[in-house]
Amino acid sequence: MAASTFFIPPVNKIGMGSLAEAVTLIKNYGYRQALIVTDRVLKEIGVVGKVQALLADVGIKSAIYDGTNPNPTTINVKEGLDVLRQHDCDCVISLGGGSPHDCAKGIALVATNDGDIRDYEGVDCSTKPQLPLIAINTTAGTASEMTRFCIITDVERHIKMAIVDKNVTPILSVNDSTLMAGMPKGLTAATGMDALTHAIEAYVSTAANPITDACALKAVTMISRYLRRAVENGNDIEARENMAYAQFLAGMAFNNASLGYVHAMAHQLGGFYDLPHGVCNAVLLPHVQKFNAKVSAVRLKEIAAAMGVDVQALNDEEGAEACIQAISQLAKAVNIPSGLSELNVKKEDLPILSTNALKDACGFTNPIQASHEEIVAIFSAAM
């Protein structure tokens, strides 16, 4: 086994009421002026105002950038950076799901390293730590609040850039399940399937190790148990809390074992058509695992067991097939579209999407490396 490095924010608050504790911590860090990076919906429903009031109570001023797109762009990063410099902010607080977290990471990284966010595409391309980032999470899925991954859409090239950099790791993550209670069904389902994808891709990754394996399998078990409940009833706080822990575990797994072709391919769909990331992952996940089963049958069988399937009487190939069935059943149960054609993906675009997918850093740790034809075939099967 090659040497492993384990990345995680130094402090992570999880559970009901953890937001109030986090604000005290932020005060103790000595910050005076924060840039809150969020989206318009969270501003409209009053979540941003609530956080601003908590900060004001401890003497911290805040400016807001609420222009984050669902797939954050190079333009969003530049706009947010302008607000940050205008108000001379000494820290960044991201509030929301993966979109504001990734946007905030881009802003905080360029704030200290200068240049353009495009300069940092790839693995560990920055030289300086970013401006301190506190990530307050409102969804249970992307785990961006605790990872070194930052995905930004380059509006000129129509691709999603994968920025994997230890310097974009937040200094504090907050998962307060009370902030997740209002999340709509569709978003709950998509972000939950995103978390399942993180866990499964990390478990079959070539960079997996005993720590990431433990995190990934526990995440799979919890998501299989609680995602349906969280989708059915958004105010089921037990389900919300368990999904918050599950997505965090999945984040710990992929932050250190990385991902695979599901993400490499989903990033292209998101960048090209501006589609929701979790939905793209959910549609592609069973098809990529069917391809991976040639080399990962044993591991996929173990995932099936974690999903609650009785695999004792099955051989490895049958166990892998049972895993793929269980993934599809869960996706169907939470109303994920059945194929890419429902998302208006066009067959004639598959060759260019496949070319770009093979360049994505997430695919480098897939258990088996694919040819261009094979990626096109996986996309086609997922139509």
TrEMBL record:
In this chain the Fe-containing alcohol dehydrogenase-like C-terminal domain maps to 188-383
Q: Keywords for this entry?
A: NAD, Oxidoreductase
This protein's cofactor list reads: Fe cation
State the Pfam families in the record. ADH_Fe_C, Fe-ADH
The segment(s) forming the Alcohol dehydrogenase iron-type/glycerol dehydrogenase GldA domain are 14-176
Xref: InterPro entries: ADH_Fe/GldA (IPR001670), ADH_Fe_C (IPR056798), ADH_Fe_CS (IPR018211), Alcohol_dehydrogenase_Fe (IPR039697)
Entry's EC annotation: 1.1.1.1
Q: Which Gene3D superfamilies match?
A: 3.40.50.1970, Dehydroquinate synthase-like - alpha domain (1.20.1090.10)
One GO MF term on file is: alcohol dehydrogenase (NAD+) activity
Query: Its domain of life?
Result: Bacteria
Q: Which family does it belong to?
A: Belongs to the iron-containing alcohol dehydrogenase family.
Q: Which PANTHER family match?
A: ALCOHOL DEHYDROGENASE, ALCOHOL DEHYDROGENASE 4
> What is the name of this protein?
Putative alcohol dehydrogenase
The protein's organism comes out as: Xenorhabdus poinarii G6
